[in-house]
């Protein structure tokens, strides 16, 4: 406890760090206040009663901090920006123009960010129209007025752009990645109510207090397991040749390339989830297939077929996303230009093949563990844990929480160490996701 108070005192003594943390808290407070501002003319209580709490809508509502179900001006949150970032990153692989921009350094990144913003506006307008037609359909008196749709689309689009601006301001003037912190705050906002509901259900119904304590212990173990996956690295030794410039010697030291066991982060789960909603979509648009046993099984969140296919897709997408974010050829070229080499491995193509082989080997256990984490909420739900509380046992929300918290703590620790204070831990250093090597010029998704 004394160590904790000493660390907090050291953080408060550093003016720059104190200002950044204060700015971050103020920006996040603005976001949370805005999430309770309802669209003009909408009866949010009536709409929330009509909405489903599970599936994709429940996940989107969690990311938006409850704004989605409240019909808030921030109902769409930052998800359109996330979608635009993913699309632009994939265009960098398929379209030569975007691939060229990724190699142009700072100017290229600025152009890519500009394209991402334009695409965010387009996606937000489309999602806003879909949100109004589907979520506010119960308000027939409003849906009959075309001006309501126009104004609501404008307000929702402006709300998403404002949230995106808040995220950029947090990144520039605060601590941590702004977009990631906004998503994390939205997820954490759902935890107290989920925790309280689960406690009441267990203490007043089946299971009792002992079952609730077992659930909490299981949740802690899952969080620890997730931290191991997020921080797990395979270090490759790199030796740099000695260079003498004037009377100074450069190089001649051994360093390490940290390759992440889970270099793809949460993206494989997001891609897999998008595909797993296809069966339910087919049933919705083709009523004749609504009784198809295969589609019903694949649409059931707790079925074996759904979770096995979900896990297989996560493993495949982990390999795919790792291949497009980690470039062994580029790493080999950069190493060669700087006079570095892996002991016992020839520079050039041999080094690239060696790095690619190591990545392939560590990606397999990383993808399997990621798939296990992704299906834990379904397992928890099948044994009686409420659907809302079960989401915190794994999946997208838990990986985002762990990753963002580690990244933010790593930045705080960096500020402390730069000013010769002790870090946040007595031994070792906090490792976030920033150590993941990626192809130069790529724009990683905010989460």
UniProtKB/TrEMBL annotation:
Q: Which residues form a coiled coil?
A: none
Give the UniProt family note. Belongs to the SecY/SEC61-alpha family.
Name the gene for this chain: secY
Pfam families tied to this protein: SecY
Give the location in the cell. Cell membrane; Membrane
Q: Return the protein name.
A: Protein translocase subunit SecY
Query: Which cellular component, as a GO term, is one annotated location?
Result: plasma membrane
Q: HAMAP family, alphabetically?
A: SecY (MF_01465)
Q: What InterPro entries does UniProt report for this protein, alphabetically?
A: SecY, SecY/SEC61-alpha, SecY_CS, SecY_dom_sf
What this protein is reported to do is described as:
The central subunit of the protein translocation channel SecYEG. Consists of two halves formed by TMs 1-5 and 6-10. These two domains form a lateral gate at the front which open onto the bilayer between TMs 2 and 7, and are clamped together by SecE at the back. The channel is closed by both a pore ring composed of hydrophobic SecY resides and a short helix (helix 2A) on the extracellular side of the membrane which forms a plug. The plug probably moves laterally to allow the channel to open. The ring and the pore may move independently.
Taking the first listed entry, what is the main subcellular location of this protein, grouped into a coarse class?
A: membrane
- Keywords of the record: Cell membrane, Membrane, Protein transport, Translocation, Transmembrane, Transmembrane helix, Transport
Listed PANTHER family: SECY/SEC61-ALPHA FAMILY MEMBER
Q: What does the record give as the organism's lineage?
A: Bacteria, Pseudomonadati, Bacteroidota, Sphingobacteriia, Sphingobacteriales
Q: Which organism is it from?
A: Mucilaginibacter limnophilus
What does the subunit comment say?
Component of the Sec protein translocase complex. Heterotrimer consisting of SecY, SecE and SecG subunits. The heterotrimers can form oligomers, although 1 heterotrimer is thought to be able to translocate proteins. Interacts with the ribosome. Interacts with SecDF, and other proteins may be involved. Interacts with SecA.
Gene Ontology biological process terms from the UniProt entry? intracellular protein transmembrane transport; protein targeting; protein transport by the Sec complex
